[in-house]
Amino acid sequence: MIARIHALLQGDAVSQRRWLAQPDARAFCANLLFIIVGAGIYGFTLGIWRAPLQSVFTALKFPLLILLTCSGNAVINGMLAQLLGSGLSFKQTSLAILMSFAIAAIILAGFAPITLFVWYNAPPLASQNAILGHSIMLLMHVFVIAFAGIMANRRLLHLLENMSGHVATARAVFFSWLAGNLFLGAQLAWNLRPFIGSPRLAVQFLRHDPLRGNFYEAVWRALWHLFH
Amino acid sequence: MTTPPPLPNERFTFGPLPSGHSPASLIEALLKYPGQIIHELQFNWRSALTIWFMIFAVAGMALYGLVVGSFAGGAQFWIAPAKLALGTVLSVLICLPSLYIFACLSGIDAHLRTVTGVFFASVGLGALLLVGFAPVAWIFSQSSDSVPFMGALHLTLWAIGIHFGLRLIKGMSQLLTGRIGTQLRLWTLIFIVVCLQMTTALRPIIAPGKTFFPTEKKFFIDNWFESLSGGAKRN
User: Is the pLDDT of residue A57 over 90?
Assistant: First the structure.
């Protein structure tokens, strides 16, 4: 298991090609485990500033968000990979994407002690500077998640370049997957909110009407209010 | 000396389709080796191939229609699939003669049956991609109340699907003439406009309506502007 984590983080082309050449249940289970544990640990630190219960909820929801994004886009990602000429099968595309999310989850788990340390030093919810504490936690998580995402996607791009043998094909497949995963992931994150937890709202697993509203309309409304 | 197998990256590698065609193998060929489909339809035509592609197109659009109908629910669960399947067939029937003529004008020496088969394969591939997008569209149809947003989303996903689908028409031109004529590019534009107008001619598809077909004639751009300015919501 440690060797597998090592190979994933290093972007070991030989091991990754071997896993992808014959994707078996073991490879899928290992990556699922990395996602559930890694994202779960980081999820715990995401919600801890708001309340201990929120951190438990977020520890469950963060891996769920990744797995729902992967499964929601599994079919279209497989189709796009084949259409764009990567030569990867549905199983191989699903495994490649799981591997990239597993890398992100491992990186996030590695950051968990640091985020816990920041939480320990941040103004707590009960203090007068609660808004400052919330802002610090929010910004830190945005940077950490963005960093993990960028690193994982870099590994995925290298993997695709290795597998397809064509840089242009690999980039086309990579950006189509990235666009699809960002598009669906943002909406699913909206549906599964709260993650960090607003200081003014109650601690909840999901908001009262999780399927009401969508992320892009909310962004549009926010921009509208900003400029009018 | 044996010929090496074609690289998977060479999208339009024209060659015969391996024997034994199941629907699954045809879908795989559409996605991975569309060149083989075009080759088969030109040099080894069988009606079964065209029929399968027609089934993919109609069934795929109907399946995606279920997701479109899930936005409003109720009667739209059957109205949206029916209208999308009907609209697809009508668009193909309306544009097939012009495709054949434009193909001839481009210097393509293809039979009508080949053009028909490739056209259905194109639309079938677009529909299959929409089925792949269905989980994404479903999440948004359950989350959003805005008809214009859902309309824009469905159109974007359809545009991605048809972009890949219409590459088969260009592939046919490449196989038979070695180039893609301006006439075919123009026809592509005509087909897209016909499809967009079809969504207005068969409206309402996303939101429920008082009548099955519209009572007022309208161009699709008018309809879009009205929807956007009205900001229609889910009932």
Answer: yes
Token digits for B39? 């080759």
For chain A, which residues make up each domain, given as ranges? 2-227
Delimit the domains of chain B by residue range: 35-230
- d(CA A116, nearest CA chain B) in Å: 33
Q: For B9-47, how does the pLDDT look when each residue is reduced to its tens digit (9 = 90+)?
A: 455 777 888 877 788 999 999 998 888 999 899 888 888
Rounded Cα–Cα distance for residues A96 and A160 (Å): 8
Long-range contacts of residues A185-190, Cβ cutoff 8 Å, at least 24 apart: A185/A65, A185/A69, A186/A215, A186/A216, A187/A214, A187/A215, A187/A216, A187/B139, A187/B140, A187/B143, A188/A65, A188/A68, A188/A69, A188/A72, A188/B139, A189/A65, A189/A215, A190/A214, A190/A215, A190/A218, A190/B143
Would the pLDDT of A41 be above 50?
Answer: yes
**Cα–Cα distance between A186 and A68 in angstroms, integer?**
11
Tally helices (H) and strands (E) across chain B: 8, 0
User: B87 falls in which pLDDT band (50, 70, 90)?
Assistant: very high
Answer yes or no: do A164 and B131 touch at CB < 8 A: no
Average pLDDT of chain A, as a whole number? 90
- Within 8 A of A82 by CB-CB distance, chain B residues are 28, 31-32
* Burial of B81 from C-beta contacts in 10 A (0-12 / 13-18 / 19+): buried
Band of pLDDT at residue B2, cut at 50, 70 and 90: very low
